[in-house]
Amino acid sequence: MKQSHAHKLKRHTYSNGTQVYFCTLPDCSFRSAIGLNLGKRTICWRCGKEFLMNVYSLTLAKPHCEECHVFKNEKKQRRIEPNKRDSAVLPVVSVVSTISESIGTNVVSSLKDKMTSALNQVIEYKTLEEKDDDL
Ligand SMILES: [Zn+2]
Ligand SMILES: [Zn+2]
Question: How far does the centroid of ligand 2 lie from the alpha carbon of residue 51, in Å?
């Protein structure tokens, strides 16, 4: 077997905990310790293109190239978009954020005051109720 091809590496963990990369291509029995593959040609598991193993891709079970790397922020967005099981919640959230954007801090704090006074009234009422119960 000629070793001219770029291996398509997949991580394998032995029962003793030792991790190696092995080539998943047919007719290739390449196998080597994880760290030894740094800078080596490999085939991206996502786009199938050749790329060079870097420190990050060495941490992946199925290495992918930098072009295919999804940053954490993008991942979050992608996760929310197709996942619309809470479709009722999403509009509410956007409405709330629109409100908090359109109204100033003064309105919010006055709203807070109103709520606090309302709460106090409720507490006073409750106290009265308890007094009534005592009678
Ligand atoms: Zn190979
Ligand atoms: Zn790729």
Answer: 8
- Looking at the CA of 50, name the nearest ligand: 2
Give residue 88's Cα distance to chain centre: 22
Whether 1 and 14 have beta carbons less than 8 Å apart is answered as no
48 CA from centroid of ligand 1 (Å): 14
Q: Which residue has the tokens 């085939």?
A: 43
pLDDT-based confidence at 77, cuts 50/70/90?
Answer: low
Q: 101 vs 63, which has greater pLDDT? A: 63
- The whole-angstrom distance between residue 128's C-alpha and the CA centroid of its chain comes to 51
Ligand in nearest proximity to the CA of 63: 2
The 10s digit of each residue's pLDDT in 14-32 is: 999 999 999 999 999 999 9
